[in-house]
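Subject: Sanity check before I submit

Could someone independently write out the structure tokens for this chain? I want to compare against mine line by line before I put it in a report. The sequence has 301 residues.
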Amino acid sequence: MRLRLQNAYVDGVKIHDVDDLGNDYAIKSAIRTRIPRESRRPRARALGSVDRSEFYDGQVIELEGHCDAGSDLATEDALDELGWLFSLTADANPPLPAGSGGRDHVFTFRRLGRLEDETLLFREANAFEAPAKGWAGLASWSVTLFGPDPRIYSTVQTSGSYDPVPPPPNYGLVFPLDPVAGGVIFAVPLTQALLIENSGTAPTPPLLTVTGPVTNPIIDNDLTGEHFYTTGVELTLGEQMVVDVAKHTVRVQGELRQDVVDARQTTWFDIRRGPNYLRLRGSGMVSGQTALGCTFYAARI
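---
Independent answer below. Compare away.
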């Protein structure tokens, strides 16, 4: 797939902008290839998140561009900066340990015709190259990016929250007699749920925040029938538990607490495309105080 780009940035540094003719860098070609999954055997769901993609393992983006800084010397300096930007260790702070394989970079871009930016994490797959060809002040460059996640994410965050404690039933509303069983039918409130919608085309990992009071909270995704169970958690008023599905971490009041995950019953579920209904269960919840929040970034395959 060829990406037609309006602009592009690596770690916040502009490397392409069709409206900025004075920029030193420009991308001539951006080709995205998703890596087919070699094996599609069924995978365990209870102890980990659902596969990011049934068909793909990751993605590769091949960039070719040119650099024109106005003179041979300035262009050479600009290419040095660009090569350092794409390197495995660029701006790593603290320094990366030996054998770590480098660090992640952020590639942010806007496609021509779209209204919002998109982003992905990558590491350099092939070394940055800038062959000596062209004319004075102009040089070409190329690099291959590898992203282990096959998804591209919106940079616009979607969020929502809800009070999981339903209001008391209003027994003052009387309905007509039941023609079969007889008697009066009373209004019964529906169990509440948090409705959120993933506008992308692929499942995406959420950040789930539970605010107390609540003991041993359980988070359900009614769309998929998946659940996140905890044990040994007791949140008092205002205390929070944060579940980061992408990182598979749970923090209680900021402290890493992987021990509270009931791994036997838990699925680290993604937010599926379209509407999702999330529900919070647990004991000791209080209306107006207990809450479930969800934030995520829409994703495309």
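---
OP: Matches mine. For the report I'm noting this point. Helices lie at 72-85.
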